[in-house]
Amino acid sequence: MPLLDVQDLRVHFPVRGPLWSRPTVVRAVDGVSLTVEAGEAVGLVGESGCGKTTLGRAILRLVEPTAGRIVFDGREVTKLERGALRGLRRRMQMVFQDPFNSLNPRRTVGESVGEALDIHRLAPNRAARSERIAGLLTRVGLDPAHADRYPHEFSGGQRQRIGIARALAVDPQLLVCDEPVSALDVSVQAQVINLLRDVQRERGLAYLFISHDLAVVEHFCQRIAVMYLGRVVETGPARAVCRQPRHPYTQALLSAVPVVDPQSKRTRIILTGEVPSPLAPPPGCPFHPRCPVAEGRCRTEAPALRIGRDGRAAACHLAAD
Amino acid sequence: MPLLDIRDLRIDFGSTRVVDGVSLSLAEGGCLAMVGESGCGKSVTALSIARLLPTPPARYAAGEIALQGRDVLRMTPAELRAIRGGVVSYVFQEPGASLNPVLRVGEQIRETLRLHRPREAGETEVARLLKQVGIPAPEQRTRDYPHQLSGGMQQRVMIAMALAAAPKLLVADEPTTALDVTIQAQIIELLAELRRQLGMAILLITHNLGIVGDLADRVAVMYAGQIVEEAATGDLLRRPLHPYTQALLRSAPVLGRKQDRLEAIPGTVPVPGQWPAGCRFAPRCPMARAECREQVPVLAPRGGDRLVRCPFAET
Q1: Domains in chain A, start-ordered, CATH in brackets?
Q2: Residues A34-85: tens digit of each pLDDT
Q3: Which residues contact A124 (CB under 8 A, 6 or more apart)?
Q4: How far is residue B146 CA from its own chain's centroid?
Q5: Which residues pair with A175 in a beta bridge?
Q6: B146 — contact with chain A (CB < 8 Å)?
Q7: Nearest CB partner across the interface for B182, out of A193, A218, A252
Q8: What phi-psi label fits residue B59: left (phi over 0), alpha (psi between -120 and 50 degrees) or beta?
Q9: Digit-coded pLDDT (tens) for B26-75
Q10: What interface predicted TM-score (ipTM) does this complex get?
Q11: Cβ B209–A256 below 8 Å, yes or no?
């Protein structure tokens, strides 16, 4: 049984249009199924507006799903009462993109990390509490003597380490990381990725790793799901998908990744047009207006995502297995 | 005579030095990329070319910026107005923040035309510019407000505005950082195409070494206010010589390369005002020796046409 099992999840947001027009909905997440095994890192890749962040938040019920099921360790998250969510969030934590905005500027680092311990009553007394805070800060590579400093006294990379320490404080089984290194300097990104991998191995942590950076996801994750307009269009083992993408969107996405090696003579697939508005997704395959190989039925019939024996799947009428 | 020739430029903000002796030159029609992490001084250097920094707090402490042979730092306000747009135009990272939200995009382009090419400031020229930057149905788009366009389209409008003044030099400061990868590829392709068509020089400012290969002839790598290495793009990417350039290239994960751990650079980027003595990269450098912490190394020629600020770099 997977640690996290998401089935046909939908998150729709009502939108008020111009005056007197009928209210519509944005289908931010529109029928996504995916699983994360214990100790596994699953990458969620896609461009802005594809619904990857909304999906991550819906799994922690930071936004309410419209339909579908989320089962975490055998319990249905979607049915939990508000009061029962606290227990859930002890086992699932989130690390955010922007370490500048996700820490309270008026609290010391020790207070921010300690708050998680207090909420979940994880420290029996003051001495145990400060000992745990010191241990967590040491684990993420910070000096425990800095526990009484404020967030502005740290660099971006250090602040992201604090965010990770806070998430680890409650000993979770799953971390949902939303673009955890995108706001960091290149020379610091690698430090944070290495740290995330070390704690994964020590604690058997599972990750849902949301990122737009395919190279980072291929490096960090065992499996990958590519999203486009609220749906998963391709999924499979990370290396296989990155090496031989089957969906035309994944192919274009991979070919657009900038490559440092000036000798690599790749053919770059430059997609025409832009991601359509999720307010009015195109009929049929959502990718067909930009797809270089689309044909007749792609315009009318939405392709299904069927997982084959090799654990791979591409929602495309024309993709070869 | 190069189009742009910056000599030993030093810029302070208050009492803090942020650019510390930058020299670089760019020929007509050439493309130079300035690469570096936050706080290295690349954007401040770029803004100084048209003297766009607010003074105070900024102060041009030393050096000269020769644009078409004339020092920008000595120009009168009238001369500056003539070069801004007419000789050097800018495209910035956040197109949404650079466009006027209450003016239709066509009107914003026409404004630039009226200033620089008043006789051509009509609908036809606006539509031609929008078409040139790859905006479909340009006649209709001129009537759109910026918020009605996507980030990629807004950036195309910014580029059209920059082109409206027919500049000799386009300074593109992180032009694709706020955009998705597929759109990023489109914009880089567009810049390369415009350079070919118009013979316009480009100064590309970026933190991403991955995008320089498709556009730039030469790359200058900056660290803590100084250029640490400058070379032809292929040479620099294939065989970086400065330890910082090497570490930067090694630290990013590469598609298709199997590795268990990334080779992270220890420590953090020093902020202006807290630059270490001696070589500024020494505290993070795997090759640093005792003397590196005492003396600031000079940017010296190494093998043909490249410059490296490290006496111990292997050639």
Answers
A1: 4-314 (3.40.50.300)
A2: 999 999 999 999 888 888 999 999 999 999 999 999 999 998 988 888 888 8
A3: none
A4: 24
A5: A93, A207
A6: no
A7: A252
A8: beta
A9: 999 999 999 998 889 999 999 999 999 998 899 999 999 999 999 999 99
A10: 0.78
A11: no
